[in-house]
Design goal:
By secondary structure, the chain is α/β, with parallel strands linked by helices. 41% of the residues lie in helices and 16% in strands. A 7-stranded mixed beta sheet has the order 1-2-3-4-5-6-7. Helix 1 runs parallel beside helix 2, helix 4 packs across helix 5 and helix 5 packs across helix 6. The protein is globular. It binds adenosine monophosphate and manganese (II) ion (3 copies). The site of one manganese (II) ion (MN) has 4 residues, from loops.
């Protein structure tokens, strides 16, 4: 059975409309799919209805941008009630944080000699509500300022780069309260992507995640090197966390795998699906 519990649509920074994402996952043989757009539940209704037509199991989800100290981490919430008011209200609040941040990013890029990027983001993605750094990266790429999305992050948008704007995302405790309040389970997404400086800080993150009621960890993730899966597998075992597995698919032509194409979980590792079911 192919499962993919981490994907994106045009409701955040993906290229596929929710129904089209479900079609693509279905074509790839996925039988259990979660949509986990950044800080929004907006795509879940459309995806759920398409999955129902195709006879696929669908799990409504979200990926919450979260501050852990000065590090931005991502917490995936699975099986959340897509009508939950506190979570929906927080999503509205974050959308407005994202708009304010986008104006500041554009201002910084302007000061670096790259004008009018926010205008281009809005022209290129007219429907977008949750403006992402990924949208700026694509504008920089289409203007020929950079050759790849990665180069845009390395030179301009990443946390050590000059157009980076720190953002008051919810804290780890707040994100967990929101996800649990919406009836969902919280998963630490792509743990090896945070460039935490030592094993100690990764352990500290996991301990705090457990303290606030975190239940799962991504062991197989399309957005970190497959070589890290064994590290995450050991973390899942040591901390008794359920394992999750997701492509983190956003678009065709990026380095990330297609929906369902990330390596499967080790068979003997308790999977978050066992908990949700
Ligand atoms: P944001 O949520 O607006 O801060 O934007 C982060 C998004 O940009 C991620 O979810 C990825 O989809 C995308 N991205 C692509 N390359 C990178 C990178 N090197 N670092 C962080 N995000 C990246
Ligand atoms: Mn993204
Ligand atoms: Mn993420
Ligand atoms: Mn993601």
């Amino acid at each position: 059975m192919i499962i993919d519990l981490h994907t994106h649509s045009t409701a955040s920074d993906g290229d596929f409309a929710p129904h089209a994402l479900v079609d693509l996952a279905h074509l790839n043989g996925v039988s259990v799919l979660a949509l986990t757009d950044h800080d929004t539940l907006a795509g879940n209704a459309e995806a759920a209805s398409r999955a129902k037509e195709l006879g696929m199991r669908f799990i409504p989800g979200i990926e919450l941008s979260t501050n852990w100290g000065t590090t931005c981490i991502h917490i995936v919430g699975l099986n959340v009630n897509r009508e939950n008011k506190p979570l929906k209200d927080k999503c509205e609040e974050i959308a407005s944080l994202r708009r304010a941040r986008a104006a500041k990013i554009a201002h910084r890029l302007d000061a670096l000699g790259i004008p009018d990027t926010l205008e281009d983001v809005k022209a290129k993605f007219p429907e977008v509500k949750n403006i992402s750094r990924a949208h700026f990266a694509r504008v920089l790429q289409s203007r020929g300022v950079v050759k790849s999305e990665q180069e845009a992050f390395d030179r301009f948008l990443g946390s050590a780069a000059p157009a980076y704007v720190p953002t008051p995302w919810p804290t780890l405790a707040e994100s967990l309260t929101l996800i649990k309040g919406a009836g969902g389970v919280a998963i630490l997404a792509h743990p090896m992507r945070y460039k935490l400086k030592s094993k100690l800080s990764l352990d500290a993150l996991l301990e705090e995640f457990l303290d606030v009621g975190g239940l799962g960890i991504e062991v197989s993730s399309g957005s970190q090197s497959p070589a890290y899966s064994s590290v995450c597998e050991a973390l899942a075992r040591n901390y008794h966390l359920y394992a999750s597995c997701g492509s983190d698919f956003h678009r065709v032509g990026s380095e990330r795998p297609y929906p369902g194409s990330q390596p499967a979980l080790p068979k003997d590792l308790p999977s978050i699906l066992e908990f949700i079911a």
